[in-house]
Specification:
The chain is 21% helix and 38% strand. The chain is of the alpha+beta class.
Length: 351
């Protein structure tokens, strides 16, 4: 059967009651302290990564059904520019629409309404003005459509979500081939690619649960990439997500920043300092507060010795613990609570 769990100091006092003046001297010599009221400006050191701003993700969909004849992009994270050729698409539907236009131009050139409708149909299928002029000039239909990117950024296959994009941002992710291949068929309206714009990015920071209550939108932040300290920048907390991560139980904070000039690679590790607002409260040295799992206790000095007293802590900052409740302003407590805790005995605390 387990021993009853008592306060280490109580054991000392029992020895004193049995006539040990020497033990009483040990108890009386234990330093005590009281809470002091102060206002502090915390600095929270956190870690994080650079990620895409999902508000600036664009999609590329097929305007016409057909087969991919040639592909000019092959890997995730491949950088494409607006107007860059992405693929060539063979489409019988496109060829039919072009033959209709050529037939009207040859047999009914005065019918501006029908010719205009035929031209508009081809434009809606993704044919550019230059391509349309070339068909009219040569009089020959082309069943192959050149598809160009309307955006600038990193290219990914359709459906590649943000968590996957972050996870593969290393060297292995850079060489992963796109699942879109030459010879594949696509349907009209099918989303084929996504383009992630890097000009605006996120610094995604992980804040420990004990500090989460301090962080607010608008707090000043300094972010320093570990691989490029010279590209550090200052910003502000733009968003505090209202949930904790499943794996590490940390709070996620987002800082939006302009990455068009800094060009910090996606997935880069960063160190950051967050300056929340000032905190006013009652404080004790961290050594005076002992953790008992879900409870925190101090050792309150009374006439007959020390006893465990449950307290409700706030934040911890520079070896000081904020005490929210459970202790009076003038109550003396052991300065080093761990000294009094018997490592083999449990401390009973009144709820």
């Amino acid at each position: 059967m387990k021993k009853s769990w008592f306060l280490g100091t109580a054991l000392l006092l029992m020895g004193c009651a049995q006539g040990g003046h020497e033990d009483a001297a040990v108890v009386s010599s234990i330093p005590v302290t009281t809470m002091h009221r102060d206002t502090v400006q915390p600095e929270l050191a956190v870690l994080g990564t650079v990620a895409y701003d999902t508000r600036r993700v664009s999609t590329m969909a097929a305007r016409v059904s057909g087969r991919i004849e040639r592909l000019y992009v092959h890997y995730r994270y491949q950088h494409v520019h607006e107007g860059e050729r992405i693929m060539d698409l063979y489409s019988p539907e496109l060829e039919t629409a072009e033959r209709d236009l050529l037939f009207l131009l040859k047999n009914d050139p005065q019918n501006g309404v029908l010719i205009g409708a035929a031209r508009q149909r081809l434009l809606l299928l993704g044919v550019s003005g230059e391509q349309l002029a070339e068909v009219a000039r040569t009089g020959r239909p082309s069943a192959t459509l050149g598809v160009y990117s309307p955006y600038t950024g990193h290219i990914h296959e359709a459906g590649n979500t943000m968590p996957d994009a972050q996870a593969t941002a290393g060297a292995s992710g850079m060489t992963e081939e796109l699942p879109v291949k030459e010879g594949m068929y696509v349907e009209k309206g099918q989303t084929i690619f996504q383009v992630f714009n890097m000009d605006r990015s996120w610094a995604v920071l992980q804040v420990f649960p004990g500090d989460g209550a301090l962080v607010r939108k608008g707090d000043r932040v300094q972010v320093v990439p570990e691989t490029a300290p010279d590209k550090g920048f200052e910003g502000m907390v733009d968003e505090v997500l209202p949930l904790y991560g499943k794996a590490d139980k940390t709070l996620t904070v987002r800082v939006y920043f302009d990455n068009s000039v800094r060009d910090i690679p996606i997935g880069s590790q960063v160190k950051a300092t967050i300056w929340p607002g000032t905190v006013t409260g009652n404080w004790l040295p961290s050594s005076a507060v002992v953790s008992l799992g879900t409870d925190r206790v101090v050792f309150l000095k009374g006439d007959s010795g020390f006893r465990a007293q449950k307290v409700v802590p706030g934040i911890t900052y520079k070896d000081q613990v904020q005490v929210l409740s459970g202790l009076g302003a003038a109550d003396p407590v052991a300065e080093n609570g761990q000294f009094l805790a018997d490592s083999e005995d449990f401390i009973k605390v009144k709820k």
